[in-house]
Amino acid sequence: MIRTAKQYVESLNDGRQIYIEGKKIPDITKDPLFRGGINARAYSYELCNHPAFKDLLTIEQGGDRFLFLWNQPKTKEDLIRRRDVYITCMRWGAAMSGMGPDALAASGVTAARCDKAMGTHYTDAVEDYRKHLKATDPAITGAITDVKGNRSLRPSAQEQHKDFYVRVVDKQKDGIYVQGAKIHISATPSCNELIVSPSRAHREEDKDYALVFATPVNAPGIKLITTPPHVHDLDDEEAVWNWPLHGRGKGVSECLIVFDNVFVPWNRVFLCGEYQFSRDQAWMFGVFHRLFGTCHKVISTEEAAGAAALMAEYNGLDRYPHIQEKLAWLAMHAQLVDAMSRAGVEHPDIFPDIGLATPGQMYTNIAKYLFANDQHEQSKVLADIAGGLATTVFSYKDWMNPEERPYIEKYLAGKDGIPTEYRLKAFRLVKDLVGHGLDGAYIHTEGSLAAQKMAIFANAPWDKYKAIAKRCAQIPGWEKNPDLKDLPPLPTKWVI
User: Fold this and answer.
1) Helix locations, 374-404, DSSP H
2) What are the extents of the domains in the chain?
3) What mean pLDDT comes out for the span 434-441?
4) Were both Cys, which of 54, 107, 262, 451 would link to 447 (CB 3.0–4.6 Å)?
5) Are residues 96 and 40 in contact, defined by beta-carbon separation less than 8 angstroms?
6) pLDDT at 445
7) Are 56 and 262 within 8 A, CB to CB?
8) Exposure string for 232-250, b = 16+ CB within 10 A, e = fewer
């Protein structure tokens, strides 16, 4: 089924244990601090029911319609459509969270590999959960990042306590009990359920931490300690005027999720103790979620390029060569991120032994590395073109004050023919793009730069590259490489 936006909002009043700024919140749908996040997610449900979008965002099988993202990707076409779903929702301003569907897709791959190697039956649990998602259409997120404690020590070697990483503490006939915490989990306050997944590889001594499972956020023993939103205590018009992007979704997104002896039934457990497959789950989530990350950066790099071009025009500098050079770099950056993101799904990694597909590790990690590595440069170029007023621009209340407005209108005008209000709004957009601490967020979400380098190195076709070099240097053995075997040796004699 596909929920309506109203049904989704009503589902959030579920008795969850949630706190913000020192207060326990009885019903988040009634608290203004959560309103923006809930509305942004609710809008995705509206898009799923809209005639113009439902055939892309949803799929019909057996007379029922459900979210396309609930399907396990098996082909290149599945992955291309997955990317189109994310980008479409983002362009229209809907919060289609990727963490939950990405954790689900990763779980499908890991469960299949574990079952094949170990004779387990985790795929049955994943598929049972998938049926539940298709039938009830909850909002889900992925709980990945552990709080870690002393980062020089492995999970089982922690000295203060053993719960810095989520672990199984008891196994029963009907299920397991888990303990620990996750942090930096996007969209938790506005979701219904979690897929909990390892953030790292494990050894045998850490097998209790090799754990993947799904649970409702209102399960007994789960507590959500929530950070305040970037933008709050503003009415809608003021929020959007001051913060054109973040003012539209001024709800909280991040949580410390505490698991205090939480029960999970076996049909919601997708890995439990098979430490050899923690790495698979972490890597598979990483590549699926980096695809999602490249999608939102396709949008934000275009926003940055557009804001810079607008400011150059409003400042009367758009014809100057040094400004055009900076604009060209922003356009190139946006196009590169888009192209490499698309390459990741057009050239996927296919696993014939389990019949599944994932985004291509090489291209997807390159796309993520590109936008993360150049985030500071993008902000620097955008701020440089906009000028100092992007830092000290006045607020909505100043503009609306009849005593201040005539002076602001007169002295903050730019190019003739451009209303001062438009110029101020463009400055506020630049401030929103570069002044919210987003540099750090964009660099570290979906994995650090080091994670991309590791994935790129691990997935690079080094044997092919070395064979190419051997062929160039006339070193025997290159002809054994399957990609080069049909090539002749390079010519060693001149034709004339």
Assistant:
1) 375-386, 389-392, 396-400
2) 5-275, 281-459
3) 58
4) 451
5) no
6) 60
7) no
8) bebeeebbbbbbbbbbbbb
Among 257, 255, 251, 296, CA closest to 38:
251
* pLDDT mean across residues, the chain: 91
Cα distances (angstroms) measured from residue 194 to each of 188, 216, 219, 286: 8, 6, 10, 17
Spatial separation of the C-alpha atoms in residues 193 and 227, rounded to whole Å:
19
CA angle at 420 for the pair 414 and 421, rounded to the nearest 5°: 145
CATH H-level superfamily of 281-459: Butyryl-CoA Dehydrogenase, subunit A, domain 3 (1.20.140.10)
pLDDT band of residue 466 (cuts 50, 70, 90) is confident
Angle between helix 420-434 and helix 278-314 axes, rounded to 10 deg: 160
Query: Is 450 a residue whose pLDDT tops 90?
Result: no
- Each residue's pLDDT tens digit, 236-281: 788 888 888 887 766 667 899 999 999 999 999 999 999 999 999 9
Band the pLDDT of 408: cuts 50, 70, 90: very high
- Residue 42 CA to residue 214 CA, distance in Å, equals 22
- Residue length, the chain? 496
Nearest to 455 by CA among 363, 379, 371: 363
Report the distance separating Cα 57 and Cα 98, nearest Å.
13
3-state helix, strand, coil in the chain (%, to 5): 50, 15, 35
Strand 222-226 and strand 17-20: the pairing is parallel
H-assigned helices in 235-320: 236-242, 278-314
Contact between 268 and 111 under an 8 Å Cβ cutoff? The reply is: no
What is residue 33's predicted lDDT score, i.e. its pLDDT? 87
- Residues in a beta bridge with 181: 258
The whole-angstrom separation of Cα 91 and Cα 95 is 10
Helix (H, G, I), strand (E, B) or coil at 496: coil
Mean pLDDT score, 285-299: 94
CB 210 within 8 A of CB 198: yes
* Rounded Cα gap, residues 379 and 301, in angstroms: 10
d(C-alpha 295, C-alpha 290), whole Å = 8
Q: What's the distance, CA 202 to chain centroid?
A: 24
pLDDT at 438: 53
State the CB neighbour count (10 A cutoff) for residue 448. 12
- Amino acid occupying residue 360: G
pTM for this one? Answer: 0.89
Q: Is the pLDDT of residue 380 over 60?
A: yes
d(CA 465, CA 496) in angstroms, rounded, equals 31
Residue 444 has pLDDT above 70, yes or no: no
- Closest CA relative to residue 144, chosen from 97, 102, 203, 206: 102
Percent of the chain at pLDDT above 70?
Answer: 95
The yes or no reply on domain 5-275 and CATH 2.40.110.10 is: yes
Q: Which of 19, 90, 419 is nearest to 248 (CA)?
A: 90
